[in-house]
Amino acid sequence: MSSDPDSQDRSSATVAARLAEAIHDHRLIPGMKLNEDEVGVIYGVSRTVVRAALQELAHNHLVELRRNRGAFVAQPSVKEAREVFEARALLEPRTARSAAARTTEADIAALRAHIVAEHAALDAGATGRALQLSGQFHIEIARIADQLTIAEIVAQLVARSSLIIALYWQRRTALCESHAHDQLLRALAARDGALAEDLMKSHLLDILTSLDLRDQSSQPRSLEEALRP
Amino acid sequence: MSSDPDSQDRSSATVAARLAEAIHDHRLIPGMKLNEDEVGVIYGVSRTVVRAALQELAHNHLVELRRNRGAFVAQPSVKEAREVFEARALLEPRTARSAAARTTEADIAALRAHIVAEHAALDAGATGRALQLSGQFHIEIARIADQLTIAEIVAQLVARSSLIIALYWQRRTALCESHAHDQLLRALAARDGALAEDLMKSHLLDILTSLDLRDQSSQPRSLEEALRP
DNA sequence: TAATCCATCGGTGTATACAATCCTGCGTCC
DNA sequence: GGACGCAGGATTGTATACACCGATGGATTA
């Protein structure tokens, strides 16, 4: 919680987590260069641990490593965006169904707290935090289903989705998806697995259709993005 | 192919690939310690790149990193084994269906060559190589479906499956699954997506049921567990 | 004037040195 | 004789030094 770089664990996992947080908050925007020395100075560690953190983030497709060029915040392509949501569509609905059969009262309370925090963040204008909480909700469902392996995969896909949303979000209405989470929670509380599965499926489809994924040559960001805005 | 450590690319990815190969071939068995210096000497690289390779393998759950203790070949638990195949059951059947609609003649030829190589490896008694080819077959299907993200996830799950099979294989009959791959190939060639989906589903179920996953850890994680009861 | 070449420099890739931690074996004490 | 404790060795964690690559900018030449 402290922002004092000297007072905390300086492991590579910590650095990776803080960088990921910054990416999710859009303080680091896609395409931005991550200089190893700078990051090291900021977090009070050497390049050795910075490199380990960057490698971990590269595994999760949050940064792209170009040999002899350095690390850059990832810029998922339109195709990649579709693929990520395709994978989520295969994993999450059935997992939500499984979760419904195993949801405990404690789980429901935790999810409800999650939604409350999400609303609060939205009201406070902290869209980055809201997005992160929204993603956590999905991961939590996989954990309730007691599928830790799937939860881990979903966690990675959710993280990538955050980047995708940062790049391709178009819907002017606020993140209304919180309503979908409310519905999901009710389905889980009612142990209605079929409903939970359907809700999750349409929820993911809803997010996907809220993106602007026209075939725009979103790849040549190297030059276009530099000159356009 | 060369085993001369000086004649080839000494990047961490290469070291990771060769270690993974050794794990799949069961030359490195679950639980084995991977000393950083030894690995470095063997491949002619410094500990820096060995550590990067080990971190990559840890990310794929092929090795387990214990802080201040070192790296060990992973020993997936029974629960983890079930979870891996649960994830595969969600991803692969539907992906096989998609692949059926996109399979080209070149794809069919490549898959057929794959199966031939698999049979040859089996006949030659190279079960490790056969297992690896068998896994590649599954990954190839995801690539035919043009789902690179799913292909990557499946690749990781397949790698873990190889470890799981090494630990929990019980069926005395030879790896008869090659027949399942034959059937799958025919379904793809016939562009029968529904059949491909069904075949993949039952194929995965068949592998899972061929494992000995009785609830108590048949492979004790520690000596204590082995000697206590 | 414009294009090409080369030198310099910032930054990454790798190796090595140092620090911290854990395991092991021996000695001592009860 | 056994158990506890301490010290030595070995191995991992981290920092730093050096090597190599690529980018940038100026100078030279057509």
Automatic annotation (TrEMBL), chains A, B:
Q: Does Transcription regulation show up as a keyword for this record? A: yes
PROSITE patterns on file? HTH_GNTR
Q: Which UniProt keywords apply?
A: DNA-binding, Transcription, Transcription regulation
Q: Where is the HTH gntR-type domain?
A: 9-76
Could you tell me one molecular function GO term of this UniProt entry?
Answer: DNA-binding transcription factor activity
Taxonomic superkingdom: Bacteria
- InterPro entries reported for this sequence: GntR_C, TF_FadR/GntR_C, Tscrpt_reg_HTH_GntR, WH-like_DNA-bd_sf, WH_DNA-bd_sf
Protein name, as recorded: GntR family transcriptional regulator
